[in-house]
Design brief:
The complex is a heterodimer of chains A (292) and B (419). Chain A is mostly helical and 292 residues long. Helix content of chain A is 75%, strand content 3%. In chain A, a hairpin with a 2-residue loop joins strand 1 and strand 2 (141-144). The model of chain A has no long low-confidence stretch (mean pLDDT 92). In chain B, strand 6, helix 6 (198-214) and strand 7 (217-224) form a beta-alpha-beta unit. Chain B is globular, with a radius of gyration of 23 Å. The chains are: A mainly alpha (292), B alpha/beta (419). Chain A binds chain B through residues 2, 5, 8-9, 12-13, 16, 20, 112-113, 116, 120-125, 127, 133, 135, 137, 142, 144, 147, 216-218, 220-222, 225-227, 230, 257-259, 261-262, 265-270, and chain B through 43-45, 47-48, 51, 196, 222-225, 227-230, 232-234, 236-237, 240, 252-253, 256-257, 260, 263-266, 283-284, 287-288, 291.
């Protein structure tokens, strides 16, 4: 492999990795907050892609400008998912973990089915947009603008998340609720409200990722599955509940995937990720940055 | 077994015999209905294929069950005449592109729905398991649109495929390359790019062998993981190889991602000759058609043929009224498969698996009474129709034009597509 080809693979892996991180962080955030694994996470991503696609279709506003709209829409979806489904699942007296898994898994199936029924399973994609199909050529290394934009959105989102968690009352409430759900109720924090906002925030983050992906990826009711699995591996690798673990792990997954595809037969490119994941599980079962 | 169960069993045996006897005694008392099982991906990543297939089969059903004045197999007369005008009923089942789900659905259709035949299944991997079940139960399987050559090489008695398989399709591609070379065009290297299930793997095995036999160098040989989130590293390798012809065997999702990624990495394949599938779906061209100008795909079907056989335009109209799109490589094969199956069941004059099987095996229909460019339909001992002549289509001016073989071509190929 030439140096240029290697640089290309690393650059592509890095950009994809930042997007993986952005997809995974919402999942990690929700888990860290309340120990619930959201199996509908991929479907949140799919919803965001359709929101952007639909808005683009009807208003012709460029997807780049629709990124905050998608995040806002997904905030509502996430909060509604908590208030409408997960809140009730958490009331289960026995086998709470299983009930939560089935509840979010059921939500995922419902969302997929609804998308297929109402939006048809046709593959959609956004044709002409500002960034679509445009590429930055850095001395023979090609960086597609949509992915560069995705990487920037991802970095900005992590920056914003850091400020939110460390500098605001809401961030402190999140952190406190994560530490001890019972105690926060005693000091007057409404646990339900924090959870709903946490779900909203987690979904808004995956909404950002969906909006970015909609620019360059095909849109389809099952598209969540393609990225969902990677999100779970990323979260497990970075450590459940760790926001910055998700960032590091996303980048690692992107790079390892790209390198494996370049060095081994591409059909085996997942092997690199899962080998790494298994290695981490043996050495550090809680993930790279996990506190559990 | 207690006394009550014994009584019940006895009573039902008597009842069954009573029902069965008059039916055997007078075969003229034909069934009112013939049930055919249809197993397709109705949900999951290939759901659109299943939905289009459903429209194709319902168009076929309309033609079979109602009287149509078309010079087409099974069109004349309402229902199946030899079975006293019995209507065909379709039972749809969803396999979600999962071979195991396909197997389970085939069992259910045979044992619960008592289907007389099964048609399917798009993904070759699913057709493989479904045809194993039909073989075991002695029910005919009509493989409408799976193209893996290995499917017919398992010594099956109940497997039939009227359309071409990938050895025939790939041979046509290399015949075309040879013809282009004779005209003085440069084709020395090919790049194989194929997905990692039975369709892609079988297709590439055939193409690899043909390339070696006919003296084309394989510049890249890439098996990729289907439904990948990214194909950058894979396309990077294609770009470095920069073969004279890129030959993808990809389903729709991967086809779209492949084309987008080639553009992103600044790679313009000199030529692209595809093993249909994703490259015969309109959605692919809706999404990335601007980057596919001059792309060539193999096909079993071409709407150009309507100029010679006007009923093709009529059938296309009927299909379009249901699905809002033109017949393509997949839907035409599904449609035709159903008509051929109905014709054979009609000829069998029976719903019993072995009799239907013998009738299908005895099929001999001229290509002109089909909507396909085939010379005729006649199955070999392995169940494959050897006369299903494939065509190559080129995407020019937002539509497909037949460019090969020369006897049905209406234009010369634009070669190279990206000069």
């Amino acid at each position: 492999m030439t140096t240029q080809a290697l640089l290309q693979v690393l650059a592509s892996g890095l950009l994809m990795g930042l997007i993986y991180a952005l997809i995974a962080v919402g999942l990690s955030l929700i888990f860290g907050l309340m120990d619930v694994v959201n199996f509908a996470h991929g479907e949140f991503l799919m919803t965001a892609m359709y929101v952007v696609f639909g808005m683009f279709l009807f208003t012709a506003i460029d997807p780049v400008l629709l990124v905050p709209v998608a995040a806002a829409a997904l905030f509502v979806v996430g909060a509604a998912a908590y208030l409408g489904v997960v809140r009730f699942a958490m009331r289960a007296k026995a086998n709470q973990g299983m009930v939560q898994i089935f509840a979010t898994f059921g939500l995922a199936t419902l969302m997929q089915g609804a998308a297929q029924y109402f939006l048809t399973p046709d593959y959609r994609s956004i044709g002409n947009s500002w960034l679509g199909g445009k590429t930055l050529n850095l001395a023979g290394v090609f960086l597609p603008w949509p992915q560069i934009f995705g990487g920037l959105v991802s970095i900005a989102a992590f920056g914003g998340l850091y400020l939110l968690m460390s500098r605001t009352d809401f961030g402190k409430a999140l952190e406190a609720t994560r530490e001890d759900q019972g105690a926060v109720a005693l000091v007057g924090i409404d646990r339900n409200r924090v959870f709903a906002l946490g779900w909203g925030l987690g979904a808004a983050l995956v909404g950002l990722a969906g909006a970015v992906l909609a620019i360059f990826y095909y849109i389809h009711p099952q598209v969540g599955a393609t990225f969902g699995l990677i999100a779970y591996v990323t979260v497990a690798l970075g450590g459940f509940g760790s926001v910055f673990g998700a960032l590091a792990a996303g980048v690692i997954v992107g790079l390892v995937e790209a390198l494996t595809a370049a060095l081994l037969p591409p059909a085996m490119k997942s092997i690199g990720i899962y080998t790494l994941y298994l290695g981490i599980v043996f050495i550090r079962p809680s993930g790279l940055f996990g506190k559990l | 077994m207690n006394r009550r169960e014994l009584l019940l069993a006895g009573a039902s045996t008597v009842a069954a015999a009573a029902v069965a006897y008059p039916r055997n005694a007078a075969l003229a008392q034909a069934p009112k209905e013939v049930t055919i099982g249809v197993i397709y991906p109705m949900s999951g990543a290939s759901a659109q294929v299943g939905i289009d297939a459903r429209h194709a089969f319902e168009t076929a059903l309309d033609i079979i069950n109602n009287d149509h004045a078309l010079d087409l197999v099974a069109a004349k007369g309402a229902g199946l005449t030899a079975l006293g005008g019995a209507k065909v009923r379709l039972v749809f089942a969803d396999h979600q592109a999962d071979p195991q789900k396909g197997r389970a659905e085939a069992e259910r259709l045979i044992t619960q729905e008592k289907v007389s035949a099964i048609i399917g299944c798009y993904q070759s991997s699913v057709s493989a398991t479904v045809s194993a079940v039909t073989e075991r139960y002695g029910v005919p399987f009509l493989c409408a649109d799976s193209s893996s050559p290995s499917l017919q090489k398992r010594g099956m008695k109940f497997f039939f495929r009227p359309a071409a398989q990938d050895e025939m399709f790939s041979a046509a591609m290399f015949d075309f390359f040879d013809a282009q070379k004779k005209k003085g065009k440069k084709i020395d290297t090919v790049a194989l790019f194929f997905e990692d299930t039975i369709f892609g793997v079988d297709s590439s095995n055939t193409q690899r062998k043909l390339a070696n036999d006919r003296g084309y160098k394989i510049a890249a040989d890439i098996k990729y993981k289907t439904n990948s989130p990214s194909l950058t590293a894979e396309v990077q390798q294609l770009k470095s190889a920069d073969a004279d012809v890129l030959m993808p065997s990809s389903y729709t999702t991967d086809a779209m991602l492949l084309v987008k990624t080639t553009a992103e990495l600044g790679y313009k394949p000199k030529n692209l000759v595809a093993q249909a599938s994703g490259f015969s779906e309109q959605v692919t061209y809706d999404a990335v058609g601007d980057k596919l100008k001059g792309a060539i795909t193999r096909a079993s079907f071409s709407l150009d043929l309507a100029a010679k056989r006007p009923f093709i335009a009529k059938v296309n109209e009927m299909f379009k009224a249901r699905s809002n799109r033109d017949l393509n490589d997949n839907t035409s094969r599904q449609f035709m498969g159903m008509l051929l199956l109905a014709e054979a069941i009609d000829r069998a004059g029976s719903l019993e698996g072995p009799k239907v099987r013998d009738a299908i095996a005895a099929t001999d229909i001229p290509g002109t009474s089909t909507i396909m460019p085939w010379s005729r339909v006649k199955y070999g001992a392995d169940g494959q129709n050897a006369d299903a002549s494939p065509v190559l289509l080129q995407y020019v001016g937002n539509k497909f034009v037949t460019i090969f073989p020369s006897d049905v071509a209406i234009a010369d190929a634009i070669w190279p597509m990206n000069g």
